[in-house]
Amino acid sequence: MPLISLLLPMPWAADALCGAQLRAPDPGVCLQLLVLSPLLEECVVRAGLQEWLIRRSPLPRQGFGWTWPVLVSTAAFGLLHLGSGWQAAVAVLPPGLALALLYQRTRNWWWCALMHSAFNAFAISVCGL
User: Fold this and answer.
1) Can you tell me the mean pLDDT for 16-35?
2) Could you tell me the CA-to-CA distances from 51 to 47, 71, 94, 95, 111 in Å, in that order?
3) What's the first-to-final CA gap in the chain, in angstroms?
4) Higher pLDDT, 58 or 101
5) SS3 81
6) Residue 24: left (phi > 0), alpha (psi -120 to 50), or beta?
7) b vs e for 13-45, b when ≥16 Cβ sit within 10 Å of the residue's Cβ?
8) Could you give the CA distance from residue 129 to residue 1 in angstroms, rounded to a whole number?
9) Is 68:57 a contact under the CB 8 Å cutoff?
């Protein structure tokens, strides 16, 4: 019985959050979820979009000037996951916010890619075990 079934006893919730790729990942899917997607998505969303917004933000970088780039990049991250369903897009918003805040603090998208990979590994372990 997958761990997700214990955490979310409603079968429809587990089905909505765990697609076939997360339930029974083959080696190609694992490569995609643990290496390729984190690198590509973080390069585009953090090093691309969020960095662009940071540099063009009219507000100072201290105080609340960081909120616009963080919120927009978090929303973009969620939109990238709409292909897996709206439930998955909503489910990735908290990790997306964490990644946006990590980038805002470090300005290093490699750390974000590493954490993204860890989040995906956790999702595979919860959905597939």
Assistant:
1) 84
2) 5, 13, 20, 18, 14
3) 7
4) 101
5) coil
6) beta
7) ebebbbeebbeebeeeeeebbbeebbbebbebb
8) 7
9) yes
Contact 19, 32 (CB under 8 A): no
What would the two tokens of residue 4 be?
A: 């997700």
**Do the Cβ atoms of 92 and 78 come closer than 8 Å?**
yes
Contact 93, 78 (CB under 8 A): yes
| 56 burial via Cβ count (<10 Å: 0-12, 13-18, 19+) | exposed
Element housing 109 (H / E): helix 109-128
Q: Scanning the structure block, which residue is given the tokens 């709206």? A: 86
pTM of the model: 0.84
Residue type, 103: Y
